[in-house]
């Protein structure tokens, strides 16, 4: 509509005036994803978001996603201004892994390599040997296990358990979970699969074991999007945040996409999975932050320097 078009035009002007670029996650509102693409920014998974920030010559990065994504951008690019539409957009994994308790866990197991998921605070990353995202967790742990290393993993127990099963690595798991992916129900998924026998099942590894066990493809957001474009199946049952459907439809408009059920009853989901913190990003607060410059990520320099080491290690490994 006209109001939205005018709002997008104002944001475009603000981005140009401030030499700013948008970096948006696949779970954010489709208006933000399309605007990022139209203005020379990037829509990506958390690993590609981190890399893009280091490759652009924009002076300001506006990270549309959740707080850890903004923090990672700032850690990698201290000379750039990093804004977010709302700094209060957190993540249940980050919230469930406070730095003090995590540090005590590490102290109790000094003979373990510390591998943390990107969905953590800068303080937690500062305690890690490796940071990983879901697109690279498996090869990193394989690499460490091949060297005979024991692993301390945090915070997502489902992703950790999946990696443990796939690699056979000896892993101690922190007890965290994603409130969005934990809602997928295996029994209801079995019913949807029976109704759609030609569908491939795509699952993000933050989902519970019994859901992961039914997957044809387990992967990060970008890996699940690639599967929709590469597999021959006409239909896909997708167990991850519904924000991902915008990019899947854009790249594979003829494929039928079915959200995996989050409710125990019924064959389809009543309310699709959607992260409440990703939903805090909108065109309105994006315009506001570009005007006011508040909601800027700040990180203590000592923490930043320490957290940079395992993040860089991840980017170098992924190259
Ligand atoms: P990806 O790294 O797969 O984009 O996942 C980020 C995330 O928060 C999933 O819930
Ligand atoms: Fe965190 Fe889950 Fe939201 Fe991803 S979907 S940002 S893991 S709460």
TrEMBL record:
Q: What pathway or pathways are given for this protein in its record?
A: Cofactor biosynthesis; NAD(+) biosynthesis; quinolinate from iminoaspartate: step 1/1
EC number from the UniProt entry? 2.5.1.72
Mention any one GO cellular component term assigned to this protein in its UniProt record.
cytosol
MF terms from GO for this chain are:
4 iron, 4 sulfur cluster binding; metal ion binding; quinolinate synthetase A activity
A Pfam family (short name) is NadA
Q: Per its UniProt record, what PANTHER family does this chain match?
A: QUINOLINATE SYNTHASE, CHLOROPLASTIC, QUINOLINATE SYNTHETASE A
Q: Name the domain of life.
A: Bacteria
Which key words tag this protein in UniProt? 4Fe-4S, Cytoplasm, Iron, Iron-sulfur, Metal-binding, Pyridine nucleotide biosynthesis, Transferase
Single biological process term from Gene Ontology:
'de novo' NAD+ biosynthetic process from L-aspartate
Entry cofactors: [4Fe-4S] cluster
Instruction: Indicate what this protein is called per its UniProt record.
Output: Quinolinate synthase
- Going by the record, the broad EC class of this enzyme is transferase
| Xref: NCBIfam families | nadA, PRK09375.1-1, PRK09375.1-2
